[in-house]
Amino acid sequence: MKSNWRVFTxxxxxxxxxxxxxAIKKINxxxxxxxxxxxxxxxxxxxxxxxxDDHDYVFIGEYxxxxxxxxxxLALIPKLHEKGIYNLGIEFGDYQDQHLVDxxxxxxxxxxxxxxxxxxxxxxxxxxxxxxxxxKAAWEVNQSTAEGKEKxxxxxxxxxxxxxxxxxxxxxxxxxxxxxxTIFKEIISKNQPAxxxxxxxxxxTRYHQPIYSFNKDSxxxxxxxxxxxxxxxxxxxxxxxxxxxxxxxxxxxxxxxPVLPVNGQxxxxxxxxxxxPIGFDVLNSPFGELKSTDSYYSLGYPGFTLASxxxxxxxxxxxxxxxxxxxxxxxxxxxxxxxxxxYLSCRGVDQQLIDSISTSNxxxxxxxKAEDHFGELMN
Length: 379
Prior knowledge:
By secondary structure, the protein is α/β, with parallel strands linked by helices. The chain has helices spanning about 1-25, 30-40, 45-50, 65-85, 100-105, 110-120, 130-145, 175-185, 225-235, 265-270, 335-345, 350-355, 360-375, and strands at about 55-60, 85-95, 155-160, 195-200, 210-215, 220-225, 240-245, 280, 310-315. It has a single domain (about 1-375), classed as Rossmann fold (3-Layer(aba) Sandwich).
């Protein structure tokens, strides 16, 4: 099964690469976007930090489970602290465990098992090394911070997801509204700036996600209350949204092959410039005028352009060089494996598969899940 997903992953990468090569022929190197990048080149890290010169709350949206995306956040943590930004809000942890996070980041020795517990409490199937390393990177910054200087905080934003809850996990909670309320409580009310790191859909600010029935080929409306939407509606010019380059859902449906952002134009431009990592503005730049005609995100938006979707953009590498996240060793143990099985059962996972799980094969199964995700669409 593992080898099958690796073959599928390779096919997806080849699909992206072929699309890139096809789109390259449509790009004239003298066009404005290329000239713009040559004049405004910034590394992804420098670009994110620069946005705090004019904004207090920077949202950065990811696809999930891509190694280089989380690695960027790890590299940013010490730079944020140097800039005087002491808060990182993350989707990947329960707010109800914030007291554990605050304790962890101020211990004399980094407690990996406690970090694993915090992550397990949020998602028993989210045992990924780089996400857990977010806590470690913050701890390391605090270890080198002089006494009396402000320490760095990682703030878990999420409501606890309990699929076993009667009526469903979100029966009484809107997860986006909950995360927004956590930001207001823990960051905005204290008049402190922050980087907010979450899945792309949670991070939308000005853009409203289409609610679309592909079965009926009908637009039902727009979701105006994603986490970032709520914060933006309150603070507007203080908020900035950055998108991390990844595949887009096709306008043909969730199960259709993904498409390249804005019809492959960004991939083509970056290929022309050697696929170097870069962060750049979309608003008030030639990139804001790039159109998408084949994506889910353009549905309900006649003449959709990238400027309606995000404020800034980060490209780190071509799709053929993407790597999956790293599995965390000893994340599932004899002490918590039954909790994992109960969680999976409530999520409707096949019982035969659940019964086959053991501490000796869970690592391989989690690797397969990460590989599976590479072929999935954002939802």
